[in-house]
Structure formats: C-alpha cells, structure tokens
Amino acid sequence: MRPREHGYVNDAMAPFLDSIGNIFNLTLFGEDFVGWIDHWEDKVSDTSIAQIFTNEPEHVKAMLSTDFANFVKGHSNHEKIFSLLGEGVFNVDGEMWKFHRNMTRPYFSRERITHFELFARHSDSAIAKLLSQPDAVDFQDLVSKFTLDSASEFLFGINVRSLEQPLPLPHVKETERNTFSAAFTSVQAQAVVQGRFGGRRRTETLIDHLVKLTDDEKLIKDESFNIMVAGRDTTASTLTFACYMLATNPHVLSKLRAEILDHVGTSSYPTLDSFRDMKYLRAVINEILRLYPPVPLNQRECVSPTVFKSGGKHYFIPAGAAVIYSVLFMHTRKDLWGDDAETFDPERWLDDRYKKYVLPNPFISYLSMLGPAS
Fold first, then answer.
1. What is the pLDDT of residue 215?
2. Known InterPro entries for this protein (predicted)?
3. Which of 38, 110, 127, 350 sits in a 20 to 30 Å window from 162, CA-based?
4. How many domains are there within the chain?
C-alpha cells in the first residue's frame, strides 16, 4: 500500500521484475525488442496459444483489410480492457462491431469534421496557456488537455475546461474536477439535460445522435467514451511528437512555418481548401505518424485457419492464434523505406522516394491500410 499512498504505484512491481530476469527488458522504440524477437522467434514454439509476430505489410493488410472478418480483437483483449472501454466500438467484434459502427458513423459527416473554427478556438486557448507560463511547460499535458476540451465540445457540446485546471501535485489526492472520469460523467449528464430540456446548444451532438437510436444508458456511455478516447489520445500523441520533431529539426520548422504563413497568414484560421494546398504540412504529419504511430503495437486473434503470403512464402495461421503486429517496426524497415528509414525527413513524401517505395506498395504505411475499421 505504501507505493500507492506515497509514490509511484508501479514501484511495487520492481522486486517482481528483478526476480524474473530480463524478459521484460523490451524497449519498444529501440532495438532491444527487435533483437529479442530475432533471438527467440526460432527457438520458442511450444506454447499453449500460438503467438505470431509480424511486421510484413501483406500480413497486416490481410488482418486490417482484405481478411478483416477473420481477425478479431478476441476474448482475451476484450477482457483486458473491458473495465475501460466496456462494450464500445473498439472492444467488440462481429455483428456487435457492425452495429456500433453503423450507429456512430453517420454522425461524422464531412460538414462536422471540417468544423475548424471550434478547434482553432481551443488552440488559441492552449497557446494562451502556454504563453502565460514563465517556466518550462509539460507540452504533452498541455495538448492532452487541449484535445480533451476540443473533443468534449465537438462530441457533446460541452467544454470540460481541463486547460483551466493545474497539473496535479505529487502525493496529493486528486480533486474530483481534475479526474478524467469525473469530467466525462459530468459532460455526459450536462449534454443529456441540455438535449432534453433545451439550452444554448444549437447543433446536434453525439449524445443527441445516440439517444435517437437507443435508450440503453450503458451502450451510450460506452460508445461515447470510446469515441472520446480515440479522438483525444491519437491527436494528443501526434501533436506531442510533432512538437518534439519540429524542435529538434529547425529546418523543417522553418519550411513548415513559411508554408503556413503563405496559405493562412497570421490573422485567420485554416480552411479545408488551405489544408489541401499545404503539401508540406501533410508530409510532416505523415512522417510523424510513420515514426511515431499512436498505436505502435497491436494484436488480433485468428478465427478460422488461414495462410499468410509474402515474399513467395506461405505461413499457416491456425485458428485461435494471437497475431501481434507492429506498424512501428514496419515503418522503419530499410528494405521498405530505404537506408534512411529511421531518419525523420518529410521530404520522402514529396520526392522520388515516394514514387520508389510508397506508390508501388502503399501498404507499407498503415495510413493506407485502415480498412473497414476506419
């Protein structure tokens, strides 16, 4: 109980990890994990559940696109994250997944997802918060709050105003208003009350959309939470790494700033047309997502026996096998991206390297293989 009350809760795991050796010494963003896989993949085969690791584009394409129905999240994954995601769209399979997808997808019309004024307004608040701090700022915390405020207003019509809350202090009990769960529950309640009894809101929110389709309170909560988490976390991750890469690559920052000033200026908000015209901005975002994908490692469970094909070889995948795939490792393979695969260089999306590597084989990038789940 002492680590929970007075320190980092995972400190309690240290003695256990020391006792089992280096099996957990897997550095996801380094070479330790790759070396560990290379060392053991031909030596370990006798396990109760077949586990297969792949970073082959054709294999990932099959799981996420061409053979999507045969690769599910599975019971094991469902149980692990049920307490967080419940029966939301990102934690169900089959007909239940189709039901969730068909229920929420119509809400995200082109008109809604290009509502830049809302996001620009929240970005102004985030920048003001940044400029008000005389000392170093935790940028990841800042953009996480920015995306939470933006997502809550976009989805529910209510701004939870997390940017106005200070960073939590170590060893001090969290106030309820600072907790994500409290903010989420509060914003749901406010959205429902406004929807039923009227208020200042003029446009339909996700809650409004869902209550037209079902009166199942748990289903509405699970679904809206899944959408909220997906929208908030992926954007916050990308913005965090964008700041890091621009700070460490000033020549990229300079070129990107010049393009934005040329198309948007300093006194107006971007539009859909200006986004389309800013080719270098798209290249920078693509390169950040290539080297720092929000979900670098994932897993699917094979429903029926099948065969993966790649490089002229065939690999049998038994039913029930857990297939672990990493787009991070796929994105840094030199045979797929060239000798500079591990180098941050947005120009690769604009010069001959794009024609040489990506156009002939677009599925080397997970941006091209979102498939039915998108």
1. 83
2. Cyt_P450, Cyt_P450_E_CYP52_fungi, Cyt_P450_E_grp-I, Cyt_P450_sf
3. 110
4. 1
For 154, the domain range is: 107-248
**Torsion over CA: 34, 36, 41, 45 (sign):** negative
pLDDT in tens, 231-247: 888 999 999 999 999 99
Is residue 188 a part of any domain in this protein? yes
Task: Tell me the C-alpha distance between 129 and 127, whole Å.
Answer: 5
| Least reliable range by pLDDT among 40-54, 67-81, 208-222 | 40-54
Over residues 330-345, the pLDDT tens digits come to 999 999 999 999 999 9
Supply the Cα-derived Rg of the chain in whole angstroms.
23
Whole-number Å distance between alpha carbons of 48 and 61: 26
Is 50 exceeded by the pLDDT of residue 7?
Answer: no
Instruction: List, for residues 80-95, the tens digit of each pLDDT value.
Output: 888 888 888 888 888 8
In a domain, 122, yes or no: yes
pLDDT band for 71, please (50, 70, 90 cuts).
Answer: very high
pLDDT confidence tier of residue 27, bands split at 50, 70 and 90 = very low
| More confidently predicted of 262 and 38 | 262
**pTM for this entry:** 0.78
Q: Decide if 184 is inside a domain.
A: yes
Specify if 95 maps to a domain: no
Phi, psi dihedral angles at 198 (to 5 degrees): 90, 170
Angle, in degrees to the nearest 10, between helices 217-248 and 279-291? 100
Report the 3 state secondary structure along the chain.
CHHHHHCCHHHHHHHHHHHCCCCCCCCCCCCHHHHHHHHHCCCCCCCCCCEEEECCHHHHHHHHHHCHHHEECHHHHHHHHHHHHCCCHHHCCHHHHHHHHHHHHHHCCHHHHCCHHHHHHHHHHHHHHHHCCCCCCCHHHHHHHHHHHHHHHHHHCCCCCHHHCCCCCCCCCCCHHHCHHHHHHHHHHHHHHHHHHCCCCCCCCHHHHHHCCCCCHHHHHHHHHHHHHHHHHHHHHHHHHHHHHHHHCHHHHHHHHHHHHHHCCCCCCCCHHHHHHCHHHHHHHHHHHHHCCCCCEEEEEECCCEEEEECCEEEEECCCCEEEEEHHHHHCCHHHHCCCCCCCCHHHHCCHHHHHHHCCCHHHCHHHCCHHHC
